[in-house]
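Hey forum,

I'm writing up a methods section and want to include a predicted complex as supplementary material. The small molecule is nicotinamide-adenine-dinucleotide. I've pasted the protein sequence and the SMILES. Can someone with a working setup run it? I'll credit the forum in the acknowledgements.
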Amino acid sequence: MRVGVPREIKPGEHRVGLTPTAVREYAHQGHEVFVEKGAGLGAGYPDEAYKRAGAKIVADADEVFSAAELIVKVKEPQEVEWKRLTPAHILFTYLHLAPDPAQAEGLLKSGCAAIAYETVTDARGGLPLLAPMSEVAGRIAVFSAAETLLKHNGGMGLLLCGVPGVPPARVVVLGGGVVGTNAARMAVGLNAEVVVLERSIPRMRELDDMFLGRVLTRYSTLDAIEEEILKADVVIGAVLTAGAAAPKLVRREHLKQMKPGSVLVDVSIDQGGCFETSHPTTHADPTYTVDGVVHYCVANMPGAAPRTSSEALVHATLPFGLALAKNGLDALAKDPHLAKGLNVLKGEVTHPAVAEALGKPFVDPYSVWG
Ligand SMILES: NC(=O)c1ccc[n+]([C@@H]2O[C@H](COP(=O)([O-])OP(=O)(O)OC[C@H]3O[C@@H](n4cnc5c(N)ncnc54)[C@H](O)[C@@H]3O)[C@@H](O)[C@H]2O)c1
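Reply by user p_vandermeer:
Happy to help. Structure tokens for the complex are below, copy them as they are.
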């Protein structure tokens, strides 16, 4: 198959859909790979490295989209990219369509098959293509919170790790999945007091075993959230229901009761955010303050570490991408977990949670197949 890798154009995004190592695997299996000039530069991969791996370097994104059938990206396509997509394309990337009706309309109009990394599943009920970026984002969330707590960044002027005789910050994590666990791990490493609120009792048991009592777990109810956020110096939002918009767990009226200068890091912002007052921000201007509480809501946190993130992402996407390159959409029929990634096909929404979030009819993909 002809596989295309455009340069990412979302502001502040430096990751790339395929590393040279991954291109070599595609080329080795007989696929032709077209990489846009400079696509890997932000992550430290020069065009030369792609050429050595067997890719053809093309001048611009128009050339990538017209040469390739399978487009492998990182972030959701931007407006100029929707317009390049046609019914002949399979798009394989993060989409996060639930909070983004404009993008959904763009993809529906294009007629392409759009497979979202974040809704591909695995045999253990996990989200294997979201997990590596959640690992990165969970870890970055704690660095970012620590920075934001400092006075010159708008925070209350607290050193997250404390010093002898002065207590560290209290970090409350909403959701103990991949982001939440990685955030808890970093916060524990920095000596913070850590509380994780979860809905899954088996997950809380795992966290309890993993952290040997160093992290407090608490069942996530309205009462528990209200109590914990009032005591928090940092709240990290890390909840998810696959494909759906994030639930608003912290409301505007809560902010006035929180500590002034406390920090909310809404990692769930890519699914609309779990704080009512969240709106997406960028690495260039990551924070804003509402009612004295500083919000950090960067929608592409792993974009800050493009080298680590591109490599980790490609390790997870490679087997699925190779299956799509080998079998086209038939790969979905062979792998029900990859099929769960199909969000849009031939102008219809084909993922139930995405359809519900967008207020669109859900259409069984097999009814529009072929
Ligand atoms: N901003 C970014 O750059 C970035 C990067 C990676 C991931 N994310 C996002 O972070 C979010 C979390 O991802 P993840 O991989 O950790 O997901 P995950 O599925 O591993 O974990 C989510 C957890 O939330 C829990 N949960 C659901 N509802 C809850 C509630 N009401 N209270 C408490 N816990 C609840 C679930 O039980 C689950 O354990 C997603 O929205 C993901 O898209 C954002």
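Some notes you might quote in the supplement: Residues 306-327 form the longest helix (22 residues). The mean pLDDT is 96.
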